[in-house]
Design a protein that fits this description.
With 477 residues, the chain is α/β, with parallel strands linked by helices. Among the domains are: 98 residues, no CATH class; 178 residues, Leucine-rich repeat, LRR (right-handed beta-alpha superhelix), CATH 3.80.10. It is built from 15 helices and 15 strands. Helix 8 runs parallel beside helix 9. It is globular and about 80 Å long. One of its GO terms (biological process) is positive regulation of cell population proliferation.
């Protein structure tokens, strides 16, 4: 059965009109403005170049969400080039068509919709430079034209879009300005840094991701540019490691220069640290440099020292967390007290807690249960991959009585369900999970609840009771 929705009357009319491009171009003069966004989409999808050029040259709206269309067709390069060329022609004209009102060319592909042609909340991060024509009290084109884009820079190469935009901005200096909302970087070259700093308004970057670098010295090159991102909301570091030995003194110098710039980030709300082994041993320095109250902290796939773990709840930035993720931070052997204090601090605001694959044991669970039960706004709790017995699991469920907003609960299969070799015994697991589910239903109305095994040592898969198939690595009973 074909589930594709039937075209609307407006779409059918657009298809019919575009069958004759010459007629369509003439008809554009009399078409109501509100029909133009849909016609633009159809001309873009169908690669109707002449109609596309005409639409761009007299675009009557303050915003063109081109990024919503970029990935829709195989004609990406040609169509994008057509639109950018037409806008470039308009930039160098001394006199523009009266209908042309473009202020923002939005090239972001995420969170966009091709019919969103008016400025709104998605543009509130851009500077306001709206001008009004005193003769007609209507919005008119302003200079420089704002070009909004998300950039992904990988290695020494540069994306074709980034190269084109930088060259365009250099060629039309004063007529257009680049604004980057999200910047994701994989070990960039010095040239990328230089061009970024010269041609992009870094103070408007909201999300910055730094990934997969085996030469942490690049943090030194980034540091002065990071300090300019004064409106940064989210900073994510992942897989930052050292391929060659770096002396403790050099490591300390790199971390210090980097964290000094974090002190300038007065709008930071989210901090994600994943597999940042280069920063291990310096987590105190990093978190201590965050002067804002974070609402989202993720420290995952990291090894924390006793000192780092003990100091974690002491930082002001963790006192009002809404999301806390400590996934794959091995806590076995560490004191549960820092986690207890952290839950007490963040309890009134916390809505999502991820303690997956932390290898917590019964004694540690019992230490945090009273604090966990007071996280009254919790909606998601992920607890897979912890070594908890059946009696302790029952106590955990009893302590969730007051957590009435829980909608997603991910619990470990009790350790009593495994044999001496760590292989799940299917019959025992079924008995235990059914008993726990029945208990939970007597306590409160549960949301989505799942029970999962430890990850397989060979394939790393996790069996979810009643939902997935046991991997072939583990012998069935």
């Amino acid at each position: 059965m074909n589930s594709k929705p039937l075209p609307t009357l407006q779409e059918l009319a657009g298809q019919n009109l575009l069958r004759n491009e010459a007629l369509a171009i003439i008809a554009l003069e009399s078409l109501p403005k509100l029909l133009l966004p849909q016609l633009f989409k159809q001309a873009y999808d169908g690669n109707h170049v002449k109609v596309l050029r005409t639409l761009v040259s007299s675009w009557p709206f303050p915003r063109l969400p081109l990024g919503a269309l970029k990935k829709r067709t195989p004609y990406l390069e040609a169509q994008l080039q057509v639109v950018l060329e037409e806008i470039d022609k308009l930039l160098i004209r001394e006199v523009h068509p009266r209908e042309f009102k473009l202020q923002v060319l939005d090239l972001r592909s995420v969170g966009q919709h091709y019919l969103d042609v008016w400025p709104g909340s998605m543009d509130d991060w851009l500077p306001k430079t709206t001008q009004v024509d005193p003769c007609c009290s209507k919005i008119v084109m302003t200079y420089p034209l704002k070009v909004a884009v998300d950039l992904h820079l990988k290695g020494r190469g540069q994306s074709r879009l980034f190269s084109y935009l930088v060259q365009w901005a250099e060629r039309r200096k004063g007529l257009l300005q680049l604004y980057c909302n999200e910047l994701q970087v994989w070990a960039p070259s010095h040239q990328n840094y230089r061009r970024l700093s010269q041609m992009v308004n870094l103070e408007y970057v909201k999300t910055l991701g730094l990934h997969s670098s085996c030469s942490p010295a690049f943090l030194l090159n980034l540091a002065p540019h990071l300090g300019r991102m004064t409106n940064l909301r989210k900073l994510a570091l992942s897989n930052i490691r050292e391929e060659n030995f770096i002396s403790p003194e050099k490591r300390r110098r790199i971390v210090t220069r980097f964290t000094l710039q974090i002190l300038k980030l007065e709008s930071l709300q989210k901090l994600h640290l994943e597999a940042v082994c280069f920063l291990e041993g310096h987590m105190d320095q990093l978190l201590g440099s965050v002067k804002t109250s974070l609402d989202d902290l993720a420290v995952t796939h990291c090894n924390l020292s006793v000192s780092e773990w003990s100091h974690l709840p002491e930082f002001p930035c963790v006192s009002q967390l809404r999301q806390l993720n400590l996934g794959n931070v091995r806590l076995a052997g560490l004191s549960p007290e820092p986690l207890r204090v952290l839950l007490v601090k963040a309890g009134p605001t916390l809505v999502a807690l991820d303690l997956e694959d932390c290898h917590l044991e019964d004694s540690q669970l019992y230490a945090i249960l009273p604090a966990l039960s007071r996280c009254s706004h919790l909606t998601k709790f992920s607890f897979y991959g912890n070594q908890i017995s059946m009696p302790a699991m029952k106590d955990l469920l009893y302590h969730t009585t007051s957590l009435i907003y829980l909608r997603l609960e991910l619990y470990p299969v009790p350790q009593d369900s495994y044999d001496y070799h760590g292989i799940p015994h299917l019959q025992r697991m079924q008995q235990h999970c059914d008993e726990l589910m029945k208990l939970l239903k007597t306590i409160r109305e549960p949301g989505r609840v799942f029970f999962g095994t430890d990850r397989c040592d060979q394939c790393c898969n996790r069996y979810i009771y009643g939902k997935t198939i046991m991997c072939n690595c583990r012998r069935p009973y």
